[in-house]
């Protein structure tokens, strides 16, 4: 009985001191988990998208990665030199970008005349953009199985609303866009754009 | 054993307690600051993270309020003003129209203007002139891409340039680059068109506004399976790939005064003594210098461009001449235009065959207002005309569809009554999914070959996926004939004529309720009387390239119109056909042909239409058709799907460094349309009213207006997640918690130990 009373006293005395670290730890865990969840979602979605895209190419029919998805894979972007590969989704809404790079609406499709613009998060799918050098070959495989080869020829840092990307461009161009600077942890108005021009097509 | 007790027994009890409290407060403070910092960042992030979807989902309603806001702000962002003058000269069977668009720039900026406008579907646009001050620059015909490149280069170089492009055979876009502050640039295009004839009535139709089109969304579920039944297929691509180009912003007539004032002058030289001359939708003033000539102008001198101008004229004599033969010598070839109206007196004697008629009525939102009233009145008239031994069915569609009877039913009183109440209850709303309705109408369930099968399709044709509809008619027409009834103030004439041609039927326009009875009577004359079939045309001496290559059946009161390119103007033209069960033929000596104007253009235009039809019918591959069209277009200087006219003033006018703004001119809603019915119920990705376009990227303005509705430069979405921020903050908090815990524990242990 004495021991029990002792423990109760200890708990009663130490509780107020434990509460604040516990609460802090809990908030910390939730925040950390939330952040980790974004990465997990981005990674898992790419696995499912990869599968859906392969089926799309094989059947020629747009396949949704999961039944309730409101978007579908449209292309695969690869930079072989640094071993980067990612599946692009139609549309660049916030929801779509959580799962993969988005093809910005009203821009051309890859391989078509005009400018194709793909955007993705700098900390997930387009993290590799920082490693892409001018002169690198960017391979784009479309959903219909056609394959296009672009060469990165310039990069720039612009404001999101003054991208300087001309929607009426008449050449065969590609732009990959993500947030700038790469290492910042907060979102800002600046964007990094990597411009590439078509150099070949096959298939 | 109490910490406080032990502390009390300490040498500096107060100091120790103060340290503890201080540390605790410090930890709490850091945590609070972290959370506050986080909240601040999140709120900042939201304010500067405009994403593309906001821009692309912009509704016309928002665009309007956006433009109003601009005005309230007192900003000097004023749209380009446009005035249009149309001058038409009718010479016998053809007309030449000169459309002058004056682009006035009231703003203080250099502006590029684009204007989407309609022209008659059968017109051959062959001339572009740009007038800058006292200089006139004549446009050249070029391949479309090449013309675009020339224009863009001039635009970038600060030179004045004009570009005329065809979006549909009846929709064109004019772009004018580098209009200076306070400057006016005139853009003039000219086109050649045949005069339309039905019975003894001649007409011309001048469309003045493009009705907002319903552009079906690209649905990924729509899959075209290969015909070999292998189960493999491809998802259909966007049915309207150029939706942006044919969807200018539309002003709500309830909130805006009409724009784009238009003046019209028609010099009518019919070539015969004129009887009644009538404008159907505009008040006009008519002068008569002599019996064969009239000059028609608008009574109010200008009218807003919100409806088609329709003029009809009749000869003073009871019957129109039944034969017209015209020639033109261009280059080393002679061009011939023959207009022959087959006799109709005997046709009326024959007993009409029993018919199966499928009526299709469009009750989509674009039909709202007066159009649906006209359509319903027309259909009710048609139901009243059915004979008891006919069979019929009624289909209505918007973005949904209802077929009244499972299969065509006898037109007895009960069925007609049921159909009448069905039609009477129709409301105009929703989108325009025309293809499924056409499919349903062409599905031949009865398959009774002793009945004539006819589809009567009532619509304004306000869709952007015309080609899909044409493909449907081509593949499913079977023995059915398609008759199009164009409804409303600005119907899509291209859709009507081409659908009727592919469906081997005829078409008519109904622009007002008053026209319903007359026009429907005319249509029924065509439906009820046998057509002139098996028509052939042979030239006795001349080698001829005749269009249409396969002469379609000719319905009652319609003339047969042939255009031909001849190596020499000699010999006879013999036209043969069957009227009912009788042979009919007519022989025309070519020497008697009268001089005509612009016949070569009409011939080329008609040949181009033939190539497009052959492409739709899969008689020609796309490549072959394109090649043929391109050759004809370049030869005869005609704007087509593949060729554009471009004019560049070589003198640079915009100083280097001065920015260039793009102004997309809004258009009126066609008269009688209900704005809310068209735009109120569905999302519509209309480009916004004003768009800026900069000559080069160096001249980005430092400050931007609060509402840059949709700058031409693409807006980039927000592409940073809060993942790392959250993870870092979470990690810091966990570390803090651990420190605090350890600190507390050490305190406890220390005090316990004492």
From TrEMBL, chain B:
It comes from the Bacteria. The keyword Transmembrane helix applies. NCBIfam families: marine_srt_targ. It comes from Bradyrhizobium agreste. Residues 356-527 form the VWFA domain. Residues 680-710 are annotated as: Disordered. This is Marine proteobacterial sortase target protein. The chain crosses the membrane at residues 21-48, 725-743. Residues 65-193 form the VIT domain. Residues 701-710 have a biased composition (Low complexity). InterPro entries: CHP03788, VIT, VWF_A, vWFA_dom_sf. Residues 680-697 have a biased composition (Basic and acidic residues). Keywords: Membrane, Transmembrane, Transmembrane helix. The keyword Transmembrane helix applies. It holds the Pfam family VWA_3.
């Amino acid at each position: 009985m004495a021991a029990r009373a002792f423990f109760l006293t200890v708990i009663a005395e130490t509780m107020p001191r434990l509460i604040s670290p516990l609460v802090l730890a809990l908030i910390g865990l939730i925040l950390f988990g939330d952040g980790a969840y974004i990465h997990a979602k981005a990674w898992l979605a790419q696995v499912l998208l990869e599968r859906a895209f392969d089926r799309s190419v094989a059947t020629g029919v747009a396949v949704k990665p999961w039944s309730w998805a409101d978007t579908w894979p449209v292309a695969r972007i690869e930079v072989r030199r640094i071993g980067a590969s990612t599946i692009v989704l139609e549309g660049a809404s916030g929801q779509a970008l959580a799962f993969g790079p988005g093809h910005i609406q009203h821009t051309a499709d890859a391989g078509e005349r005009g400018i194709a613009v793909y955007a993705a998060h700098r900390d997930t799918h387009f993290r590799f953009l920082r490693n892409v050098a001018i002169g690198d070959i960017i391979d784009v495989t479309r959903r219909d199985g056609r394959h296009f080869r672009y060469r990165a020829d310039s990069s720039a840092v612009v404001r999101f609303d003054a991208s300087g990307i001309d929607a009426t461009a008449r050449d065969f161009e590609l732009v990959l866009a993500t947030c700038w600077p790469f290492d910042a942890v907060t979102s800002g108005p600046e964007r990094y754009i990597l411009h590439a021009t078509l150099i070949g097509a096959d298939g | 054993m109490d910490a406080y007790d032990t502390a009390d027994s300490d040498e500096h009890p107060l100091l120790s307690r103060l340290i503890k409290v201080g540390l605790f407060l410090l930890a709490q403070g850091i945590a609070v600051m972290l959370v506050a910092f986080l909240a601040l960042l999140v709120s900042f992030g939201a304010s500067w993270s405009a994403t593309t979807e906001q821009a692309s989902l912009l509704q016309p309603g928002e665009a309007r309020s956006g433009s109003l806001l601009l005005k309230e702000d007192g900003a000097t962002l004023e749209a380009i003003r446009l005035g249009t003058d149309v001058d038409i000269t009718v010479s016998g069977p053809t007309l030449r129209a000169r459309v002058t668009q004056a682009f006035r720039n009231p703003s203080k900026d250099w502006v590029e203007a684009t204007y989407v406008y309609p022209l008659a579907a059968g017109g051959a646009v062959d001339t572009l002139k740009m007038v800058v001050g006292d200089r006139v620059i004549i446009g050249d015909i070029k391949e479309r891409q090449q013309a675009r490149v020339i224009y863009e280069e001039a635009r970038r170089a600060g030179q004045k340039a004009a570009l005329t492009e065809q979006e549909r055979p009846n929709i064109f876009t004019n772009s004018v680059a580098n209009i200076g502050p306070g400057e006016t640039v005139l853009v003039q295009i000219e086109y050649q068109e045949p005069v339309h004839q039905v019975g003894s009535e001649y007409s011309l139709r001048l469309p003045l506004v493009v009705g907002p089109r319903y552009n079906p969304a690209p649905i990924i579920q729509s899959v075209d399976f290969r015909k070999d039944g292998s189960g493999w297929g491809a998802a259909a691509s966007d049915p309207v790939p150029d939706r942006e180009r044919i969807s200018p912003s539309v002003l709500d007539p309830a909130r805006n005064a009409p724009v784009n004032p238009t003046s019209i002058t028609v010099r009518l030289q019919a070539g015969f003594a004129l009887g009644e001359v009538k404008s159907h939708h505009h008040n006009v003033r008519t002068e008569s210098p002599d019996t064969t000539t009239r000059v028609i102008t608008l009574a109010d001198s200008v009218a807003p461009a919100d409806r088609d101008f329709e003029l009809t004229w009749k000869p003073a004599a009871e019957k129109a001449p039944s034969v017209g033969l015209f020639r033109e010598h261009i280059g080393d070839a002679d061009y011939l235009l023959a207009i022959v109206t087959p006799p109709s007196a005997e046709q009326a004697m024959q007993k009409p065959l029993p018919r199966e008629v499928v009526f299709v009525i469009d009750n989509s939102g674009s039909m709202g207002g007066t159009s649906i009233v006209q359509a319903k009145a027309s259909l009710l008239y048609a139901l009243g005309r059915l004979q008891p031994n006919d069979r019929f069915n009624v289909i209505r569609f918007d973005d949904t569809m209802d077929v009244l009877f499972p299969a065509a039913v006898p037109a007895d009183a009960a069925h007609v009554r049921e159909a009448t109440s069905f039609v009477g209850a129709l409301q105009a709303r929703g989108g325009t999914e025309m293809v499924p309705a056409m499919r349903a109408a062409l599905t031949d369930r009865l398959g009774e070959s002793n009945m004539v099968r006819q589809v009567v399709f009532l619509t304004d044709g306000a869709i952007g996926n015309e080609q899909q509809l044409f493909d449907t008619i081509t593949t499913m027409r079977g023995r059915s004939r398609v008759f199009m009834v164009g409804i409303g103030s600005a119907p899509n004439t291209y859709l009507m004529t081409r659908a009727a041609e592919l469906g081997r039927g005829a078409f008519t326009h109904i622009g007002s309720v008053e026209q319903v009875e007359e026009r429907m009577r005319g249509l029924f004359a065509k439906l009820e009387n046998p057509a002139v079939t098996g028509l052939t045309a042979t030239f006795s001496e001349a080698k001829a390239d005749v269009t249409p290559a396969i002469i379609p059946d000719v319905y009652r009161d319609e003339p047969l119109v042939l255009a031909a390119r001849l190596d020499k103007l000699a010999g006879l033209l013999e036209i043969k056909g069957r009227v009912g069960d009788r042979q009919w033929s007519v022989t025309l000596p070519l020497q008697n042909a009268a001089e005509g104007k612009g016949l070569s253009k009409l011939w080329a235009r008609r040949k181009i239409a033939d190539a497009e039809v052959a492409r739709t019918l899969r008689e020609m591959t796309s490549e072959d058709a394109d090649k043929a069209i391109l050759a004809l277009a370049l030869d005869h200087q005609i704007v087509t799907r593949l060729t554009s006219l471009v004019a560049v003033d070589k003198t640079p006018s915009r100083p280097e460094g001065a920015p260039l703004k793009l102004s997309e001119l809004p258009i009126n809603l066609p008269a009688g349309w209900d704005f809310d019915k068209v735009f109120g119920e569905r999302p519509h990705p209309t480009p916004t009213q004003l768009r800026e376009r900069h000559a080069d990227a160096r001249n980005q303005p430092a400050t931007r207006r609060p509402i840059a509705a949709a700058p031409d430069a693409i807006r980039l979405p927000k592409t940073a997640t809060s993942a790392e921020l959250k993870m870092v903050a979470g990690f810091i908090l966990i570390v803090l918690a651990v420190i605090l815990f350890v600190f507390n524990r050490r305190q406890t242990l220390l005090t316990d130990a004492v």
